[in-house]
Specification:
By secondary structure, this protein is mainly beta. It has helices at 8-11, 144-150; strands spanning 18-25, 33-39, 60-64, 74-84, 107-117, 122-130, 153-156, 159-161, 164-166, 171-174, 178-181, 184-191.
Length: 194
């Protein structure tokens, strides 16, 4: 459902709100296509102390119709899991987040990505993959580009994925191959194969 929060029902569940999907040939890798799906719309990066996340109870999917028949030939499926380092605090972080395994990062998210073919066969492409933290400013994420780059995962077969934070007024890098201005949380796959 793409609603940009104006639909009453999805406004009650913003982590499931798919606001935009983009697909384009990657300008620096012309043999690939970059897919970006936006979720959790209209969130400011510094909206803490409880920053935006993907939903642990939401199955995110990007459907691809390669032949125009209105049916998905390929689907990329994402499932997320939030892990707390210190359940004794509600804070997202307790100091600067300097790496994807920083002890200061309390609410980390990991994901599994699967590819579903036209016949419904599911192939797990990766599991336990780290998401980057939310881009919440220079005190908490002093080197955000490095954190985002570390969360780009090569899944083999020409597929790279990077679910993560997008910041309004700047660009978000998808798979290190293209940039696109977005806001909220995004899932991205760059693929060279159908």
């Amino acid at each position: 459902m793409s609603s940009h929060r104006e639909a009453p029902e999805i406004a009650k569940d913003p982590v499931a709100d798919s606001t935009d999907v983009y697909a384009f040939v990657s300008p620096d890798r012309p043999g690939t296509v970059t897919l970006i799906a936006n979720y959790v719309p209209l969130q400011e990066p510094a909206g803490g102390p409880n920053f935006y996340e993907f939903g642990d109870d939401v199955r995110y999917e990007i459907h691809i119709d390669n032949n125009g028949d209105g049916r998905a030939d390929v689907t990329y499926r994402f499932r997320f899991q939030t892990r707390l380092r210190n359940p004794g605090t509600f804070l997202y972080n307790t100091g600067p987040i300097l790496s994807l395994n920083s002890p200061n990062w309390n609410r980390r998210q990991f994901y599994t990505v699967s590819k579903v073919n036209v016949h419904g066969r599911v192939t797990e492409l990766g599991a336990g993959l780290a998401c980057p933290p939310c881009n919440i400013g220079p005190l908490s994420t002093p080197n955000y580009p490095q954190l985002a780059a570390a969360a780009v995962h090569d899944l083999g077969g020409g597929v790279r994925c990077s679910p993560g934070s997008a910041r309004r007024g700047s660009t978000w890098t998808s798979g290190r191959s293209s940039t696109w201005p977005t806001c909220g949380r995004s899932s991205s796959c760059t693929t060279s194969s159908g």
